[in-house]
Specification:
It is a single chain. The chain is an alpha+beta fold and 871 residues long. It has 5 domains: 378 residues, Glycosidases (TIM Barrel, Alpha-Beta Barrel); 75 residues, no CATH class; 88 residues, Sandwich (Immunoglobulin-like); 83 residues, Immunoglobulins (Immunoglobulin-like, Sandwich); 215 residues, Immunoglobulin-like (Sandwich), CATH 2.60.40.1190. Helix content is 16%, strand content 25%. The chain contains 15 helices and 44 strands. The strands form 11 sheets. It has an 8-stranded parallel sheet. A 6-stranded antiparallel sheet has the order 13-14-15-20-17-18. Strands 38-37-36-33-41-44 form a 6-stranded antiparallel sheet, with no helix packed on it. A hairpin with a 3-residue loop joins strand 27 and strand 28. The longest helix is centred in the first third of the chain and has 17 residues. It is globular. 51% of the residues are buried.
């Protein structure tokens, strides 16, 4: 079923642009069935080297902060590459004229989000004719165009050094003159940005405000500057009309089919009623413009950079509030689904329990009015790449998830080539490209994505159906199983997210005994059909990191099941505080495996008793959370499973170290470092005051009290302006590395790390030592540490599961080393003299990225593990 690879068009040779012979205006597609390829114009393809450098010091392909040279002609030349992948729609970053270089922030507007003219094409990207040719070439290929738009702000031209006087917005104001010689946008009325002029102040095109310092404050979020960008007064009739006129032009004159709205959470949600539907003959709402061009379903989806903690949906409901008013009136048709992205990344890249994703799948169907029109993604230009913390096996699973759930899947450029850098260029001369093009249609991930996209495009049950979660694992990585049901039948989707084989036991499919599950997709290409057993159940052993899709088919076959399955006795109680025994019987010859929390590979040894009876001892050393329901089942290969039993564990933590750290020593190894000069770093968030270490069996808990915890930039993990690099040396693990990857340092006192956690406000990643070097973080771990923040106590707690530490039952002799710096798509820059967003006092080519450090801390010899199990 689906689109065979042989049906995909043959690629045009590089440098041969697709002919611009398609229509400018085309009817809207059914957006539920689309698959989007997202590209950043400057980093995708360079078709005209003559427009790379505009002479303002803004272009340097070796510098991620500057233009690399990509343009619209280059994107047009590579449309066959996108089409062959199977994508149906291309989303581009804003093509509009932008601030080329900001000397205050030492960064450029190559990304397109720092507009100076919303109605002109940036000279680096080409001309209006180039854009029109790109759109018509897309339409000629049967594809559609999404343009990124900004309504919240323009570039950074003014700022306040202190809170402004509401009665006098000119007080404390200073201007930035960029390298184009401008201190205001060039487009009217946005060029009226100087409140010192009474006439400009009266027009109120801007909120003359400083940077947001409290993202929970509604006034600040909606009217203050986000990251220093000049905030537009979107309540102004004049501003609204100018934005509608600018963006309506792109629909009429270029043929844009949809908009993605940047920073949508930073304007009032009812703004979009005017933006989309205003009845203004001079500047009608963009849906009215689109309808006049024949687009009856012009799609608009907004960015809401907000993620939820496990089993919470506060941010999801905020996102929903931007799609519909409390009375149900629609604002926007869709939004980017950041909560799904965050949960899926935790599960597929970091080994979080699959129950978190199962819950998220169900919750999004409850919260969102139309989840089929939400844009779903696993990588984008504002977050770390999946492969920066996860591995290829997990990425394949995450991509298959996108293709088998409601939503519009979005593929960020380079994901299909295995990129690890956030904004690495695809073309040879661009940033991070290492001198070669990356349009390899034989690349393994490219070929895999072709298959996964073809599966979705060939089966509308997957793009239009409803999910029903059947099984998920509360204890850790393992099984996730869900139906997608709709007109056309039912599709069973099953993952094993663990690095070990997992037992899927007694899955109640709801099908009749004897019905067939026809395999239509397997990540490894080796799927097999399944017969549904008695009572509509299915049991199987899933290989590590596997993923499958089956189609339910009815057969007129009666099944009489007289199999003698292994028996598992009822458990003596439902909560345990130490290791315990289970017992059962097996009437058939053969080996019984006792499988705990679906972990088939590490099945518990069974001791045979007289007759058919057996016993087994359950080790709870890796079980942490008393809220988690664990499972145990008896299994025989080739026969099947007993009934499943469940239990909980309540265990004690043992303090093993408590260390004070001097205040004010967050100045680097030699005491020379200073913080970035930007005011939000003033609390000195990298200063460690105290570290507590505790163990519970083979599990490690590190609690760090800081001088300050801030959330200036609204980080989903609950802290910002600092990142932690924690190294653990476990005696029973072989090997180990000395280098602190990318930190220009080695561990002290001869310590060698086996496990390394990097944790910041927007992400965390854990690595095992194999492959680690000064420039390589090592092998991504299948599990990761849990991070909890108590802002009032100024503490962060990092919990390393026993599975991440070699399944040790005793951590005696293990060593821990804790360091701080800051991380923003990479360790924050170090310079001889500090800048707004760079540390000062060091040589960027050789000095350590370490502000404060504690350790190595050695864990003393512990009592025998059995003594630790009771409270």
């Amino acid at each position: 079923m689906g689109l065979g690879l042989g049906m995909l068009a043959t690629a045009a040779f590089a440098g041969d642009p697709a002919p611009a012979n398609g229509p400018r205006h085309v009817p809207s597609p059914d957006w539920r069935d689309q698959v989007v390829y997202f590209l950043m114009i400057d980093r995708f393809a360079n078709g005209d080297r003559g427009n790379d450098d505009q002479g303002a010091g803004e272009t340097d392909p070796a510098d991620n902060a500057k233009y690399s040279g990509g343009d619209l002609r280059g994107a047009r030349e590579r449309l066959s590459y996108i089409r062959d992948l199977g994508a149906t729609t291309v989303w581009i970053t804003p093509p509009v004229a932008s601030q080329w270089w900001n000397p205050k922030s030492h960064y450029g507007g190559y990304h397109g989000y720092w507009a100076t003219d919303f109605a002109s094409v940036d000279k680096h990207f080409g001309t209006l004719a180039d854009y029109q040719a790109f759109a018509q070439a897309l339409h000629g290929d049967g594809m559609y165009l999404v343009q990124d738009v900004v309504v919240n702000h323009v570039a950074n031209f003014f700022h306040y050094d202190a809170l402004p006087d509401p009665q006098d917005p000119a007080r404390g104001l200073s201007f930035v003159r960029d390298t184009q010689g401008q201190q205001a946008p060039t487009q009217a009325p946005f060029d009226r940005n100087d409140p010192r002029d009474p006439a400009q102040r009266a027009r109120a095109i801007y909120h003359w405000t400083p940077d947001i310092v409290d993202f929970t404050n509604e006034t600040q979020r909606l009217t203050w500057q986000n990251a220093g960008l000049d905030d537009l007064n979107t309540e102004s009739t004049e501003v609204r009309r100018a934005l509608r006129a600018s963006y309506g032009m792109w629909i009429r004159d270029v043929g844009v089919d949809a908009f993605r709205v940047d920073t949508a959470l930073y304007v009032p949600p009812d703004y979009f009623t005017d933006f989309l539907r205003a009845d203004d003959p001079q500047a009608p709402g963009i849906l009215r413009v689109a309808e006049a061009t024949g687009r009856k379903d012009f799609h608009v989806f907004g960015e809401a950079f907000a993620s939820d903690k496990p089993f919470e949906d506060t941010q999801s409901k905020r996102i929903d509030a931007y799609m519909r008013a409390p009375d149900g009136t629609r604002y926007m048709p869709g939004m980017l689904d950041f909560p799904l992205f965050a949960t899926a990344t935790d599960v597929f890249a970091r080994g979080a329990p699959t129950k978190q994703l199962g819950w998220r799948i169900e919750d999004r169907m409850r919260v969102y009015p139309d989840p089929w029109r939400m844009a779903t993604f696993i990588d984008n230009h504002d977050v770390d790449r999946f492969l920066a913390s996860g591995d290829e096996a997990g990425l394949k699973q995450a991509l298959l998830m996108l293709m088998t759930l409601p939503g519009i899947p979005v593929i960020w450029q380079g994901t299909e080539q295995g990129f690890t850098g956030m904004r690495t260029a695809m073309f040879a001369g661009g940033f991070g490209a290492q001198g070669r093009d990356h349009f390899d249609e034989s690349a393994p991930l490219y070929r895999y994505l072709q298959r996964a996209i073809a599966l979705r495009r060939g089966d509308k049950v997957l793009s239009r159906g409803n999910p029903e979660v059947l099984r998920s694992n509360a204890a850790g990585p393992g099984v996730l199983a869900y139906w997608m049901k709709g007109e056309g039948g039912a599709r069973l989707v099953v993952f094993n997210t663990a690095n070990h084989a997992a037992l899927l036991d007694n899955l109640d499919t709801g099908l009749g005994a004897g019905e067939l599950l026809r395999n239509v997709f397997a990540i490894d290409g080796k799927g097999e059909d399944l017969d549904v057993g008695a009572y509509g159940r299915v049991s199987m052993v899933l290989p590590p990191r596997s993923g499958y899709v089956w189609r339910a088919e009815t057969r007129d076959t009666a099944v009489i099941d007289d199999t003698e399955y292994p028996e598992l006795d009822d458990l003596p109680r439902d909560t345990f505080d130490g290791d315990f025994e289970v017992a059962g019987a097996n009437l058939l010859p053969g080996e019984v495996r006792v499988v705990v929390d679906e972990d088939y590979t590490h099945a518990v040894p069974v001791a045979r008793q007289r007759g058919a009876n057996w016993r087994a001892r359950i080790d709870i050393s890796a079980m942490l959370d008393p809220a988690v329901e664990h499972s145990v089942v008896a299994w025989m290969d080739g026969v099947g499973a007993s009934e499943r039993r469940t239990f909980r564990v309540v265990r004690a933590w043992k303090p093993v170290a408590s260390i004070d750290d001097p205040s004010g020593d967050d100045t680097g190894p030699d005491g020379r470092y200073t913080y970035p000069t930007e005011a939000t770093f003033a609390p000195r968030q990298g200063d460690i005051e105290h570290v507590d270490v505790a163990t519970s069996g083979g599990t490690l808990r590190v609690t760090v009290r800081m001088r300050a915890i801030t959330t200036t930039w609204n980080p989903p993990n609950g802290f910002d302006h600092v990142a932690f690099s924690i190294f653990v040396d476990v005696p029973n693990m072989q090997g180990g590395a000395r280098a602190m990857p990318n930190q220009f340092a080695e561990l002290p006192d001869g310590m060698r790390w086996d496990v390394h956690l990097r944790a910041g406000g927007w992400g965390r990643a854990m690595f095992d030592a194999p492959g680690a070097s000064a420039t390589n973080e090592g092998t991504p771990s299948a599990t990761t540490a849990l991070v909890q923040v108590d802002a009032q106590a100024r503490t962060l707690t990092f919990t390393f599961p026993a599975a991440s530490l070699g399944r040790a039952t005793d951590l005696s002799g293990a060593r821990v080393y804790v360091t701080t710096w800051d991380y923003d798509g990479g360790w924050r820059a170090l310079r001889p003299v500090a800048a707004d967003y760079a540390f000062g006092g060091g040589d960027p080519a050789r000095d350590p990225r370490v502000l404060d450090a504690v350790g190595p801390i050695t864990i003393p010899k512990q009592r025998p593990s059995g003594e630790d199990h009771h409270q």
